[in-house]
Amino acid sequence: MKHGEALEHWVTADLERSREENRRAKLKKLLAEIHQHPDSRSLPAGSSQRLLVESHERKVMQSAMDLGYEPPEQVLKELGLHLGVELGLGL
Fold it and tell me: Is the confidence at residue 20, as pLDDT, over 70?
């Protein structure tokens, strides 16, 4: 997943700190979703597969943000999430 390395480090660190079972289950699910698809940059530009994976990446990032992850502003812009964050909207 594009930007998955930083997100994976955050999930792993938060998983080690967290003692709440519900949160740990959500973090484990998020970790599995990170590895569910290949990096969108490895797929042909404009292909339906790439569009599908990019949509998945946005959903994973939004789920991570719902759990408290704060991605760099550049990542938000690349995924098109910056407008929703500025408006206080979820995907």
Answer: yes
